[in-house]
Design goal:
- The protein has 122 residues and is of the alpha/beta class.
- The protein has one domain: 2-Layer Sandwich (Nucleotidyltransferase, domain 5), CATH 3.30.420.130.
- The protein is 24% helix and 19% strand.
- It has helices at 50-60, 73-81, 94-102; strands at 2-7, 25-30, 36-40, 65-67, 85-87.
- Strands 3-2-1-4-5 form a five-stranded mixed β-sheet, with helices on both faces.
- Helix 1 (50-60) runs parallel beside helix 2.
- The chain is globular, with a radius of gyration of 13 Å.
- It starts with a strand and ends in a 20-residue tail after the last helix.
Length: 122
Amino acid sequence: MKIAITSTGETLDSHVDPRFGRAAWFIIVDSDSMEFEAVANDNVNTAGGAGISSAKVVIDAGAEAVLTGNCGPNAHRSLAAGGVKVYTGAAGTVKEAVEKFNSGEFTAADGPSVGSHFGTGI
């Protein structure tokens, strides 16, 4: 399965970014082989709409699931509309998050875990 993990860096050893829309990177990982691609998130400093724009990046990358610390309402709605399941509460390294996902430690979120503008300081 292709999973997008929010990340502070470009590798599997990078830490999970607790923000979805303003995460620095998305690591797109094949959960079976652990092959991955790092995709820079150009929405980090966007004035508005980061969650929706970031959801488009993940959907266009072909991800079927997202692992992140938190996900706001606009991003969650956009990901759900694109058929992408959202798993919040991820922490540690990207590799650790994928391993926890593979062992069934995450439950799909049925809604956002934070309000709008989380991580912007507003």
